[in-house]
Amino acid sequence: MMPDVDGVKSICGGPRLPNLFPFYKPMSDSRVEQLLEDIKLVSVARHDLVQEVRSSILGLNDRISEQVKYGGILFSADQPFCGIFSYTHHVSLEFGDGAALPDQFKVLEGTGKQRRHIKLFTQTDVVDKCVSHYLGLALSASQKA
Predict the structure, then answer these.
(1) Where is each YdhG-like domain found (predicted)?
(2) Which of 51, 66, 99, 118 could form a disulfide with 93 if both were Cys (CB 3.0 to 4.6 A apart)?
(3) 55-88 confidence digits (pLDDT tens)
(4) Cα 131 to Cα 26: distance, rounded to the nearest angstrom
(5) Residue 45, CA distances (Å) to 5, 8, 49, 87, 89 in order
């Protein structure tokens, strides 16, 4: 394990990415904002978790766009690469072509031909399940497609 930017060790084998955009407030369409408000009404904790993952995704690249689709938020940078969905007891980070991603840390779930997901129950899961690592892989893979 290597220390990350805050001196906290990461099980992912590399430093956790710093928040490169600490004052970044994503511009969003009203459908995304409405979905976020709906999630917040049901669970503030899940809303905060969605917002943390969403900020990580939008901070990867300035070309990333978001839209509400299939009951969640889908993210694209030329090509779609992931989505966030809030469920009753967890938040799911979905990768449409996740089966093609190397699962070095054994956190991807699913057995279908293409899709894989990471279930997040708390904000510590974002670091513990190496979300930044998998987001980077998914974005890179989508740009090669």
Answers:
(1) 47-135
(2) 118
(3) 999 999 999 999 999 999 999 998 999 999 999 9
(4) 19
(5) 25, 23, 6, 12, 10
Classify the phi-psi angles of 7: left when phi > 0, otherwise alpha if psi is within -120 to 50, otherwise beta: left
Q: How far apart are CA 64 and CA 57, in angstroms?
A: 8
Entry pTM: 0.82
What is the three-class DSSP state of 114? coil
- C-beta neighbour count of 26 within 10 angstroms: 15
**Calpha distance 114→30 (Å, rounded):** 30
DSSP conformation letters of 75-101? EEESEEEEEEEE-SS-EEEEETTGGGS
Q: Tell me the torsion sign for CA atoms 37, 46, 64, 74.
A: negative
Structure tokens at 47: 């809303």
- Count CA atoms closer than 13 A to 31's CA, side-chain side: 9
Bridge partners (DSSP) of residue 10 are 2
Domains delineated in the chain:
27-143 (3.90.1150)
d(CA 68, CA 4): 33
Place of tokens 């990333």: 64
